[in-house]
Amino acid sequence: MSDHDKSYFARRAAEEAELALAAADPEAQEAHRRLQRAYTERASVGERVSNEAEVIG
To answer: Its domain of life (predicted)?
Structure first.
């Protein structure tokens, strides 16, 4: 993942944190927090690695 992509995800995580703080609805707050965690993870480790089994046939 490029540094540009990591910067984007970090910026989006910060925006979601602000939106969570500003939201009046508890469900909206939680949704923004989930998005914040997902963006933070992407910024720090990149995309998740798929552990799908390889079919050998």
So the answer is: Bacteria
CB 16 within 8 A of CB 36: yes
Q: Which amino acid is at 41?
A: E
> What does the chain look like in DSSP terms, one character per residue?
--HHHHHHHHHHHHHHHHHHHH--SHHHHHHHHHHHHHHHHHHHH-SPPP-PPPP--
Tens-digit pLDDT profile for residues 38-47: 999 999 985 5
Give the rounded distance of the alpha carbon of 53 from its chain centre: 25
Q: What is the model's pTM?
A: 0.73
